Amino acid sequence: MSGPNTNYDPVQVSTLDANQVDARVAEALDAIAEASTTAELKQVRIAHTGDKSPLALANREIGALPPAARKDAGKRIGQARGRVNQALKARQEELAEAELEARLAAETTDVTLPVVTSPQGAPHPITALIDDVCDVFTAMGWEIAEGPEAESEWFNFDALNLGTDHPARALQDTLWLDPVSDGKCMRTATSPVQIHTLLKQQPPVRIISPGKVFRADEYDATHLPVFHQVEGLCVDKGITMGHLKGTVDAFARAMFGDVRTRFRPHYFPFTEPSAEVDLECFVCHGASVGNPDRPCRTCRSEGWIEWGGCGIVNPRVLIACGIDTRVYSGFAFGMGIDRTVMFRNNAPDLRDFVEGDVRFSRSLKGGAR
Ligand SMILES: [Zn+2]
Predict the structure, then answer these.
(1) Dist. CA 297 → ligand 1 center (Å)
(2) Could you say which of 2, 265, 324, 351 is the most buried, measured as most Cβ atoms within 10 Å of its Cβ?
């Protein structure tokens, strides 16, 4: 605080003197006019209107004046600050506009430059899912096994407990290779790979075999004559349904997150007992069942999705491969890859998988995740 309080004349307080105030305003206006960028103007703003600026300090002196003198001094300082602020605002607009124009000029696109025209592809969703499945199982110590797509009848049927007179054999629309008398066909499942492996390798065996399979099926939204399966086979001492359930559960969780699986009794010639594997709907988790207000497209409000088949390997299959069934047992499971991509990625038409439109692959971002 400054100045005595008796017979007080505000003119005597130097910082509130009209000439002094005018001089501070003039300094501020000069500095504002000289600022050539918004960054410089910011510094000017701090120096001339900030808490420690001469005008702000002068403003604080007003409180120390006798009441009669306060009004006059307040008006003087208020007007001075108003002029400075107005000048700052005008200069700010001027500089910002100039800077914008300069930036736009600098960033002008040269439309004559060549552009990158090669389109970006993406892994096919089937390939991406097969890679994912192989990652899941190799991480658990399983091996990947592959086999021929054209098979002899024995590998495709007989060894899998589907003898020539077995009724299930007629259920599969097999594509036979000419001449039919040679007994060669396009494999109807990836199961023959199990036989090839068991003939070459003594247990313990843990393999996953993804690949193409072939049926004389219609070509429509839900059927393709060529589609993909992945099969798993584990043969070792003391293998039980418990191991099978644990493995299928781990597989389901790796593919779909925190979901449960359900086994329904079924019949397959190559496993005994056999089960169909249902997956708890990973979208609604069953909340859509009996709840018309919350329908679920993924499971058609059934709460479960059919995913594949599985079971304990029929001893006849192991015997056909020369494996001692008193020592060893095994489990096997198989899932449709196309079907898995279909409901995992909400791709309702199987024909999109084979028609080669890169937009389909790209829309699924190369896969499965
Ligand atoms: Zn659902």
Answers:
(1) 6
(2) 351
**Residue 132: other Cβ atoms inside 10 A:** 16
pTM of the model: 0.65
Query: Of 74, 78, 336, which is closest to residue 212 (Cα–Cα)?
Result: 336
Residue 120's region, left for phi above 0, alpha for psi from -120 to 50, else beta, is beta
Distance CA(22)–CA(7), nearest Å, equals 24
Residue 12's pLDDT is what? 56
> In angstroms, what is the span from residue 319 Cα to ligand 1's centroid?
42
CA 57-63-64 angle, 5° bins: 95
For residue 172, what pLDDT band results from cuts at 50, 70 and 90? Answer: low
Give the CA dihedral 335, 337, 340, 345, nearest 10 degrees. 170
Mean pLDDT to the nearest integer, 180-203: 92
- CA separation for the pair 13, 3 (Å, rounded): 6
Span 190-201, pLDDT tens digits: 999 999 999 999
For the chain, give the number of residues: 369
Residues 262-276: b if buried by 16+ CB within 10 A, e if exposed: ebeeeebbbbeebbb
80-83: long-range contacts at Cβ-Cβ below 8 A with a sequence spacing of 24 or more?
Answer: 80/21, 80/22, 80/24, 80/25, 80/55, 81/49, 81/55, 83/25, 83/29
Residues making up the binding site for Mg(2+): 272
The two structure tokens encoding residue 330 = 């095994």
Distance 207 CA to ligand 1 centre (A): 31
| pLDDT higher than 90, residue 86 | yes
Q: What are residue 164's phi and psi, to 5 degrees?
A: -60, -30
